[in-house]
Structure prediction request, 269 residues.
Amino acid sequence: MKKTFYILCCSAVLWGSCKTDNYPAPKEAIKGAITDVLTGDTVWTDQGSEGIRVRLRELSWKATKVPKPFDFYCMKEGIYQNTKVFEGHYNVRVDGAFIPLVRTGPKGDTLANGDASKYIDIKGVTVCNFQVQPFLKVEWAGAPTVTNGTITASVKVTRAVSRDDFKAKIEPMGSYNDNMLNVTDIRLFVSQVPYVGYREKDDRYSQEIAYNGNEFEAKLGQPVAIVSRGTIPAGYIVFIRAAARINYRTEGHARYNYNKAVRVNIPKK
Prediction:
């Protein structure tokens, strides 16, 4: 198996290009979608380390005992695609704001039924979908309103995985605490680009509401109003998106669960 990876740079993936030999460029492709196992809905995310990471490990290359991970990220719509992969046998996993697909114990051993990653052969265009258990479901609880250049959005946050199921899956990994389930903050991202999110937000107008301890527990399933910062100029077209997260880190990141972006027109005076 040729050990050269060309890194695809597109709206979904941002990699640096490299070449270490004279073999032809990789031309196989892998793509897929991340969906909620209960609802079948696509799991909305963000690009970069705040979103869903896809990790490939090529198992057909035997030059090293431990295959080096090959990472890239999902698009905001919860789908991914990479068209520059070598043909071969791979382990594929995704990590995001959901129950980890690969769960290990305190000593690093894989737990019983704790490996939901996939082992696939990539050749041509290979589809590899994943069903996951998101931590939270974030929804709009009504249409946003605009008053004097500020946006008031109504957001509803519910648990997408039960407390009991979360504990059953996470506690055997070690260092479990019930506080891991606490909702820590809700964000309203505002931007002039449709792909609004953590990295494409305008800090002049984006807003955050932080919560201490289990303070948010009583607000689960209830509409929560969040108002944008500052004054958005009249005549602007902006896009807003809401996100929320719990006090638990996957692969070192406290990732957000998101909803779908909507367009907001700021009336002209």
The longest strand covers residues 150-159. The mean pLDDT is 90. The CA atoms of residues 51 and 104 lie 21 Å apart.
